[in-house]
Amino acid sequence: MITAIVLINCEVNRIPEAAEEIAEIPGVSEVYSVTGDADLIAMVRVRAHEELADVIADRLSKVKGVLGTATHIAFRTYSSHDLEAAFSLGLDGE
C-alpha cells in the first residue's frame, strides 16, 4: 500500500465543498481542514504507484476550487495505535 499526504490550497469560499468532493474520490481515505500553509490535507492510499496520478493529478487537482497541491509520499508509518494493537494481541514477547 502506498500512502501519500496531499497538501491542498483552495479558493477560500470553496473549502467545505472541495473537501466533501475530494473525500468522495476513490483512493482518498481522509480529508482534513487545517490551519497553516495549506487549506486541506488529504490522505491518499493506493495499491500501485501509478494510481497516484489517477487520484491526484486526474481527479483531486481538478476539483472546483482547488488552486494547487503538494504531494508527499510516505516511506514508513509510525503509530502508537499500531504498537498498542500489537501488544493487545500478545506480540510483546511474553
UniProtKB/TrEMBL annotation:
GO CC terms: cytosol
InterPro entries attached to this UniProt entry: Dimeric_a/b-barrel, Tscrpt_reg_AsnC/Lrp_C
One of the protein's GO biological processes: response to amino acid
Domain Transcription regulator AsnC/Lrp ligand binding as annotated: residue spans: 6-77
Entry's Gene Ontology molecular function annotations: sequence-specific DNA binding
Top-rank taxon, per record: Bacteria
Protein name per Swiss-Prot or TrEMBL: Transcriptional regulator, AsnC family
Organism from which the protein derives: Intrasporangium calvum (strain ATCC 23552 / DSM 43043 / JCM 3097 / NBRC 12989 / NCIMB 10167 / NRRL B-3866 / 7 KIP)
